[in-house]
Write a sequence for this structure.
């Protein structure tokens, strides 16, 4: 999924610092809007595009140095196809800030972008970034990950400010998977909280979820160290401990007996962990990866088990040593 690290880019870090960059953000939801606010804080030009808006996609991306996708997973493939028809210049930096898995191909957003635009540098933006807190101007940190170091650095300086610290990484897939897989775990933690199981249970669940996420992520090509960073453990902690997290609220609602459709209706926005859980089980079955926590979340979301039964199933697993991180 690598673009050549030596291929040209439309704007580099020094140019970002010295002049106004032209950025198009695809997706005018809470996340896209929060990211636009960060970029405007640095005096760069932002076009915020929505499928429901009046501006055409062609006009929105025309002349952009950087195109960032903040749309939900269900819209990624269709939007990428539209972009492909617009003959995007190969030096344009493509950034994905979507956390999910494609139900048809089981690919991540960055894999979809890189497969479609093999000559363009692709950057993943991922971290513990609850959009409501960013919108409020509260401090946060994230990771810009790419196999194209210069593109990652340009994105780093595009967003970095006194309230938003941006780190670089050479592991886009690991950064992306960390942010994607923790959404499933957040649903499980929401159930734990909704059932009032206490701090001990929540701590144990999050701790045991880490080996599961690492096991999946490294099997699929991510680097282990990445999962202990901001886009892995950091994102998991934020999403699993805040009621601002949509996925946490899904689990919490299920624990209180609400139907899934009602919960999603009340959220009014996408909880990516629901789709991710279904796709993840496809991958786990295909690759024979043990995913006990994610599997119970999958069963719960699909009405095969109650929240109480899900907890009981996890507590009744065979006893084992904790010595191996990936057990």
């Amino acid at each position: 999924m690598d673009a050549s690290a030596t291929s040209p880019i439309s704007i580099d870090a020094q140019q970002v610092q010295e002049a106004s960059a032209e950025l198009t953000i695809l997706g005018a939801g809470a996340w896209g809007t929060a990211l636009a606010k960060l970029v405007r804080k640095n005096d760069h030009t932002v076009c915020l595009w929505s499928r429901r808006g009046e501006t055409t996609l062609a006009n929105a991306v025309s002349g952009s140095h950087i195109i960032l996708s903040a749309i939900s997973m269900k819209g990624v493939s269709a939007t990428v196809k539209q972009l492909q028809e617009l003959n995007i210049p190969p030096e344009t930096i493509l950034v994905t800030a979507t956390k999910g898995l494609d139900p048809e191909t089981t690919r991540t957003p960055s894999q979809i972008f890189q497969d479609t635009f093999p000559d363009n540098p692709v950057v993943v933006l991922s971290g513990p970034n609850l959009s409501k807190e960013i919108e409020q101007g509260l401090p946060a940190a994230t990771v810009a990950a790419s196999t194209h170091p210069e593109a990652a650095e340009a994105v780093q300086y595009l967003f970095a400010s006194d309230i938003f610290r941006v780190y670089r990484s050479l592991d886009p897939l690991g950064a992306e998977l960390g942010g994607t897989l923790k959404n499933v775990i957040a649903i499980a933690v929401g159930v734990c909280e909704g059932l009032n199981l206490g701090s001990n249970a929540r701590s144990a669940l999050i701790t045991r979820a880490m080996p599961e996420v690492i096991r999946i992520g490294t099997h699929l090509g991510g680097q282990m160290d990445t999962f202990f960073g901001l886009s892995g453990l950091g994102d998991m902690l934020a999403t699993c401990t805040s009621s601002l997290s949509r996925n946490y609220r899904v689990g919490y609602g299920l624990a209180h007996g609400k139907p899934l459709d009602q919960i999603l209706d009340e959220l009014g926005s996408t909880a990516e962990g629901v789709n991710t859980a279904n796709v993840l089980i496809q991958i786990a079955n295909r690759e024979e990866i043990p995913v006990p926590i994610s599997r119970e979340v999958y069963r719960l979301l699909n009405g095969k088990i109650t929240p109480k039964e899900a907890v009981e199933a996890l507590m009744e697993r065979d006893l084992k040593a904790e010595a191996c991180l990936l057990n």
